[in-house]
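sanity check both lines:
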Amino acid sequence: MSIFSRLFPPAEVEVCLRALEEVRSLFSNSLYSDVASDYVLERVRTILRDRKNKPDLLKAMYEAKKSPRDIVLYAIAQQCKLLLSSGNYHIYRGVLSGEGNGMRAVFGIALDELVKSGFANEEQASEQRAELHELIKDVG
């Protein structure tokens, strides 16, 4: 990534980065989620700044007509799911560490916000939670 693109990201990236900062406060209520949310949000920031992800970002914003806030919350939920399915945040099979529990809390908060905004419905959220539960149960 060039220094120019780092200093002046495209407009759609800039909008999503602002949305990322706006949602940060959602994750500061839980005991474990502060540390986990900082880590997850930094990963999402890196993904947003990665130039090869720009076409997907544009598609989500313009074709699917999703708000930057929804895109960021969805990316946060997906990163949590990816990280928790790695097994790196387990004490042993099916049991999460403190940081893993924080990530699960961040996942739940992001998913709840997506339901509130209409990005997902309760049924889809339940499926996502069940899928995460299975991933956690099987890995570790």
Remarks:
- The first helix runs from residue 3 to 7.
- The longest strand covers residues 90-92.
